[in-house]
Amino acid sequence: MRPIIGIPLRYQKLSDDRPILYMAERLRRTIQLAGGFIYPICPVQNVDYINTRGNEFNPLTDEEKELINSSLNCCDGLLFPGGMKFTPYDRYLLEVAIEKKIPVLGICLGMQMMSCYNKDVVLEKNETSIDHNQETDDGFTHKVKIFKDSKLYNILGKEEILVNSFHKMHVTENDVYKITAVSEDGLIEGIEYPGDFFNIGIQWHPEISYEVDEDSKKIIDAFIEVARENSKKNENNRESVLL
User: Fold this and answer.
1) How would you classify the pairing of strands 37-41 and 19-22?
2) Which of 20, 26, 97, 204 is the most exposed place for a label (fewest CB within 10 A)?
3) Distance CA 185, CA 31 (A)
4) Which residue, among 67, 64, 70, has the nearest Cα to 46 in the 3D structure?
5) Between the CA of residue 114 and those of 97, 101, 118, 190, 216, what are the distances in Å?
């Protein structure tokens, strides 16, 4: 059975200024190709997610938190995709996922949210000679060093890989997540939550290069596999409840 992968929808404006919620087509295809079943998760607050600043959101109500919990109860894994901003609902999704030990993979903006989900945003503008915002999806733009004492290294089995890159900001050190990878110019490119469960953030986009790059495929496949194992546990729990 395919594991159910929850993916929060992102926000954007069309050329005529109409706001939309969306999921990147490349991400949808990759997760389905890797064996996952996609469960889109919608934001729950009645606000303009595009034009509301991060510090202007009202706290989540108990009802809104319950809606988020209900969504996560359906998920075997949670993937935070890239996008233009993150909000209180992203932060609370991660908070509950950590509590429930739901496997998590954060990509680009998803990783940035993970690094500061429990405090004020601490992101800095990229000011380096290395290109961290390539113009097209094709190819790779810089190297990343993987630290040996990390789950990411256990997945990839190597200390250095080439990655694509689509970000103008980068994360700083935090007091929760462990740093697992850095770029050639020292920017943080990988993080993981301490513990024995899968909760990993990466700054690059393995879903874009999944079909052409072995390292990208290993990361996505590892996430899908732990979500599949979690699915078996969830299925057993559901059966015991029914009995």
Assistant:
1) unpaired
2) 20
3) 31
4) 64
5) 11, 14, 8, 11, 20
Per-block average pLDDT, block size 10, for the chain (243 residues)? 95 90 96 98 91 86 95 96 89 95 96 86 70 78 94 97 81 87 91 95 95 97 97 67 37
pLDDT of residue 161: 95
Give the pLDDT score at 126: 66
The predicted structure's pLDDT at residue 133: 73
Tokens of 72: 């996560």
The tokens for 218 are: 């290993």
| Selection from 201, 30, 178 nearest residue 110 by Cα | 201
Tokens 């490349």 label which residue? 26
Q: How far apart are CA 90 and CA 83, in angstroms?
A: 12
* pLDDT (0 to 100) of residue 103: 98
φ, ψ of residue 153 to 5 degrees: the values are -65, -40
DSSP states of the chain as a string? -PPEEEEE-EEEE-TTS-EEEE--HHHHHHHHHTT-EEEEE---SSS-TTTS-GGGPPPPPHHHHHHHHHHHTT-SEEEE---S---HHHHHHHHHHHHHT--EEEETHHHHHHHTTTSS--EEE--SSS-SB-SSSSS--EEEEEPSSSHHHHHH--SEEEE--B-SEEE---SSSEEEEEETTS-EEEEE-SSSS-EEEESS-TTTSTTT-HHHHHHHHHHHHHHHHHHHHHHHHHHHHH-
Q: Residue 219, Cα to own-chain centre: how many angstroms?
A: 12
